[in-house]
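Q: My labmate handed me this sequence with no annotations at all. I'd like to see what the chain might look like in three dimensions before we decide whether it's worth expressing. Could you predict it?
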Amino acid sequence: MDDPHAVPDGQPDAVVPSLAQAVSFADVQAASERLRGIALRTPVLTSAVLDARAGMRVTLKCENLQRAGAFKIRGAYNRLSQLSDKEKRGGVVAFSSGNHGAAVALAAQMLGISATIVMPADAPANKVDRTRRYGAEMIFYDRSTGDREAIAQELAHKRGATVVPPFDDARIVAGQGTAALELLAQTAEVDAIVAPTGGGGLLSGTAIAAHGISDSIQTYGVEPENGDDFRRSLESGTRITIPVPQTIADGMQTVSPGELTFQLARQHNCRILTVNDEELQAAMRFAFDEIKMVVEPSGAAALAAVLAHKIPAHHKRVGVIISGGNVDIARFTSLLST
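A: Here is what I predict for the chain of 338 residues:
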């Protein structure tokens, strides 16, 4: 599909000031206060074995232990809690590969708002079950042929509901940034933070939080080799669209960066690393064997980059966000055994 925001003739996009300034460190701090008592203050863990393997001091921020099993509740609640009374009465519609949908459903349940989630028909069963458990209506589509955003927009228009996107929204980004804000309060100084990257909400929020503390902290996003739309977009200077990625990382099968998140990532000089499926599986296996944690493929991306020595060696203290742990036992054991 064509990108309506791409610059003709392949010329790089300029950083759009209104977008690049759309989310501030103060917004992340406000989101942190809004989430007090709502999102869990997830633990940070270290491992001598991991440090030895990586050749650097690594601190893991364990968002796989977050409510609804992933960091997404941070952005979802921050967004829904700021709806007007009229918007709350109309309900919300979200489109998601799984974790964002579950988070929106949970946040809506907590706030007494009706929620409809547009989800791919091949979404992992445990993510579907979790979303249903929170009381949301489910609408399924074919990931390879359907346009989830268009489906959500049409539903919202018919119902008078508000669309809650998974990443391309200032209040979503601010909420996601609170994970890094906590990490930086929970550990000694770090010189880099590494985060899994799909549409870029976590990456851009992490960069804003990090640079609110110190301009010297480098932020890295990690995406699948077969789904490197963000890497290619940043390298070309304009957002590109790719086919639906074929990867075990179901939460990172995005086809293009968000307009807002792309501009924020450029403004904060985010860098992108890629990992293959075998490296994702190795990271999941390491987390289970050495740290006794269950991590889903997408959630393991940043750890995979560290274990595969993708982080530049000059970094000595690195924060790693483990973004989610929503994987059912059958798929988990299958991935670890291959």
